[in-house]
Amino acid sequence: MAADVYFAKLHSGKTQSPLDKIRKLLQRCEVKKLYRKDELVAVKIHMGEMGNTAFIRPIYLRPVLEALREVGAKPYLTDTNTLYTGMRWNSVDHLHNAALHGFNYGTLQVPVIIADGLRGENTVPVPVAGELVKEAKLAADIIHADALLVVSHFKGHSLVGFGGALKNLAMGCASRAGKLDMHAVMRPRVESSLCTACRLCARHCQAGAFEFAPKAAITDKCVGCAHCIGVCPHQAIKHDWNQSAANVQKKIVEYAKAVVESFERPAIYINFLLSMSPDCDCWDGNDGPVTGDIGFLAATDPVAIDKAAFDLVVAACGGKDPFRSHYPEVDGQLVFAHAVRMNVGTADYKLHEIK
Ligand code: SF4
Ligand code: SF4
């Protein structure tokens, strides 16, 4: 059966606030039935690495948080620490970064909780019947919530093809051990003949994994985040994408399955198709968008909402996948096929435009 996905265009007249459109989307997803009085609701959001400007602006969360408060629920904003060093590497820096980006109690009147503890150690093993993952390592303070609502910025991603609800569920709700588990099959290599020893890669590697003799080489410190691949000006950093990227995509789907199955009721997913940069908000910078702002989607099926977002972006780009133009070796469509096989949701959706 096709899943319902609700869509509001950003451009639909000057007289309506985009925040009202988000309110309408939440109503159509029956927010009052899915969330209950006194429940602790984890509102999963990526608050953007320091230096990045493409992440979702905090003001867009206001209607989401209001809707949860109206039913008497107790929402909190949450994210997890990263694998690599940066401003989201531990909870102290992460909360500082969140506050500087406007995600704080003063702005939104909700607490911000980093869900996997001070240094990513607050982890819960969750059994899952995946092809590659049998036990997902998830962030305790998301999994222990009574309910979940997932707010995702739709954009490109170097390992997955695109980042939306599924990536936010999987990588975003995993503890550091879980993130390593998903990335572990990935480690790029340097093609020596192309390397000019400029050391730009080392400046961007937050794991300190590069050594030089004098050409670059990647050591065991590598956590497989793939940031360096897009950085090298000579395309000297390569990966065996055929094998590894497909495995990472599968693991992401299977981690998303573990999160979805941890909650009694479906979550509401909201995807923002705004400032869609070619890379993840984990980068400490961002390129311009791959296409113009499209609007907002909401659904209770994470696969359907990502498929609808992907199709809208491809349509806006004249039928071409703009993320694949950026990372030709990564086919984002493989994610949908595996997500359907793993019963995470359906890629068959009905789009309802809300005015
Ligand atoms: S950025 Fe590329 S060319 Fe420069 S040192 Fe690293 S691998 Fe070599
Ligand atoms: S993939 Fe590249 S940037 Fe990421 S940890 Fe490994 S060497 Fe560093």
Structure description:
- With 355 residues, the chain is an alpha/beta fold.
- It has two domains: 3-185 and 240-353, LarA, N-terminal domain (Rossmann fold, 3-Layer(aba) Sandwich); 189-238, Alpha-Beta Plaits.
- The chain is 33% helix and 20% strand.
- The chain contains 14 helices and 16 strands.
- The chain has helices at residues 18-28, 31-34, 62-70, 91-100, 105-108, 140-143, 165-173, 176-183, 200-204, 227-231, 241-260, 302-316, 322-326, 333-341; strands at residues 3-9, 40-44, 74-79, 112-114, 123-127, 135-139, 147-153, 155-157, 161-163, 189-190, 210-212, 216-218, 237-238, 268-273, 295-299, 349-353.
- Strands 4-3-2-7-14-15-1-16 form an eight-stranded mixed β-sheet, sandwiched between helices. A two-stranded antiparallel sheet has the order 5-6. Strands 8-9 form a two-stranded antiparallel sheet.
- Strand 11 and strand 12 form a beta hairpin.
- The two termini are 25 Å apart.
- It binds iron/sulfur cluster (SF4) (2 copies).
